[in-house]
Amino acid sequence: xxxxxxxxxxxxxxxxxxxxxxxxxxxxxxxxxxxxxxxxxxxxxxxxxxxxxxxxxxxxxxxxxxxxxxxxxxxxxxxxxxxxxxxxxxxxxxxxxxxxxxxxxxxxxxxxxxxxxxxxxxxxxxxxxxxxxxxxxxxxxxxxxxxxxxxxxxxxxxxxxxxxxxxxxxxxxxxxxxxxxxxxxxxxxxxxxxxxxxxxxxxxxxxxxxxxxxxxxxxxxxxxxxxxxxxxxxxxxxxxxxxxxxxxxxxxxxxxxxxxxxxxxxxxxxxxxxxxxxxxxxxxxxxx
Amino acid sequence: xxxxxxxxxxxxxxxxxxxxxxxxxxxxxxxxxxxxxxxxxxxxxxxxxxxxxxxxxxxxxxxxxxxxxxxxxxxxxxxxxxxxxxxxxxxxxxxxxxxxxxxxxxxxxxxxxxxxxxxxxxxxxxxxxxxxxxxxxxxxxxxxxxxxxxxxxxxxxxxxxxxxxxxxxxxxxxxxxxxxxxxxxxxxxxxxxxxxxxxxxxxxxxxxxxxxxxxxxxxxxxxxxxxxxxxxxxxxxxxxxxxxxxxxxxxxxxxxxxxxxxxxxxxxxxxxxxxxxxxxxxxxxxxxxxxxxxxxxxxxxxxxxx
Lengths: 288, 306
Hints:
The complex is a heterodimer of chains A (288) and B (306). Chain A has 288 residues and is mostly helical. In chain A, 74% of the residues lie in helices and 0% in strands. The two termini of chain A are 28 Å apart. Chain B is mostly helical and 306 residues long. Chain B is 79% helix and 0% strand. Chain B contains 13 helices and no strands. Chain B has helices at 2-26, 34-39, 45-55, 61-73, 87-122, 127-141, 144-158, 170-200, 203-210, 215-252, 258-267, 271-299, 301-305. Chains A and B meet through helix 4, helix 5, helix 9, helix 10 and helix 11 of A and helix 1, helix 6, helix 7, helix 10 and helix 11 of B.
C-alpha cells in the first residue's frame, strides 16, 4: 500500500512536471536557473576579466564591446562582479533553504506526529517568530550580531524554518491518519522509521515547491540586507552591495545599479517561475 | 461573538510576551559587551561602566527582564543612546510618516491588483491571463531597492515630474508608495484571480446567470464581492511585508519614518532605539493580525464557531 501510494505520488509528480514544466513560464524558469548556475560556476573561465582587476583611468565607463556591463567606480568589470555575486547569492540561497527546510522538516514532523503539548509548545514558539513581519527579525539579528555572510545565513535560517515546519506539520497531521501508517505502527515500526519512510515522503512534493520559492526569497533577502549594509561586506561582490554602491553614481553611471538589479530580478523571477510550475504540477486543481 | 473576541484577544497576549522576550534578548546577543560595542574600541573603562549602569546591564538578567517588560507595558522603551531622548517619543514622532507610506502603498497595490486579478480570472487561460500573471510574478521578483532608484531617475530626474526624496506634499508620496506597493500588488493580483475563480465556480453564480443576470453583473455584483473576504486576510498579512519593505523604501527616498530611524540606529549601534523600533513594528503587526481575525470572525460566522 505504501509502495503504491508513494509510487502514485511520484508518478503524479513526474507526469505533472512533464505537463506543466512544458509551460512557457516553467521552461523559462528552468532555463534561467540553469544558466545562472552555469554562469556562476564557470565565471572565471568565461571571462578574460578578473572581478578584482582595477582599471582606474576608465572608471565608471559605460557598456562597451570589451566590457559588456561597463566598469564600476574602481574600474572593475561589472559583468565579472555580477557573475561572482551570483555565487554569493546562490550559496546563500542553497544554504538557507537547506538549513531551514531540514530544521523545519524535523520540527514540523515532531509537532505534527506527537501532537498534544509538544505541538502546542512548538506552535506557540512559531507564533512568536511569525509575529515578526517579513525579514524584520533578520534585520534585528544581523544588526546585533554584526554584518557578515555567516550572520546573514544564520538570520535568514532563523526566520526561514517556520514556514517549512508549518507545511510539514500540516502534511504529517494528515498522513498520520492514513491506514498504512496505522498498519506500520501495528507491525512494530518505530517512530523514526514511520516518520522517515511513511509520513515524510508525502510532504516532499509541497516541500520541494516551497524550497524553490524559498531560494527566490533567500536571494532577495540577502540582497536586501547587503543593500542596507548589513550583509556581505566589500570587496566581496554581492548584488545588493553593488546596487547600493551604484546609487551614488545613479545620474552619471546608472549601469552600476541597472545590471546587478536586472540580474537579481531575473534570477528571482526564474526561481519563482520554476516554483510556480512545480506547484501547478503537484496540485491537480491548479492544472484544471 | 463576545466569547470569540475574548478568546482571540487572550491568545494574543502570550505572543506579545514572546515578542517582547525576543526583543529584550537582542541586546544580549551582541558579541562581547554591548556597552563596549556601542561606544567603540576607544572608549574608557569608566565610560563603558557608566553606560552599562544607564542601560541596566549591571543588574541581574531576571531583574533586567522584569524591568524591560514593566516599562514596555507603560510605553517606556528607554533612552536613545545617540540623542539622549526617550525612544518612545522619537518613534511616535516618526509614526505618522510610516503609517502614511504604508497606507499609500496598500492603496496603490489594491488599485493595481484588483483590476489585474479580475481581468486574469475573467479571461482565464487567454493571453490576457498569462500577461497579467507574468506581470504579477515579475512584480514579486523586482526588488524595491532597485525599482525605487530607477523610478527616481525616470520620474524625478529625467522628467522632473516628482520630487526625488523627502516628505511634505502628496507628490513626495508617489514614488515611495509605488515602489513599495508594486510587490504587494503582484501578490494581491494573484490572490484576487484565485479567489475570484473559486467564486465563479460556485453554484450561486450559475443560478444568477440562469435567472438572466448578465455575466458582468454576476461577476461584479456577486462573485467579486464574495471573493473579497479572503483577500482581506491577505491584505492584512501583507501589511507586515509593507512594514518591512518600508524600512528599505524609507532609506532610499529619505522618508522620515520608523524604518529609516531603525537603519540609522543600527548604524550608530543605538541598541535601545533598535529594540524600540523592532518591538513597535512587531506589536503593530500582531495587532493588525488580531483586528483582521476579529473582522473575519464578524464577516464569516463559521470562523467564530470553530
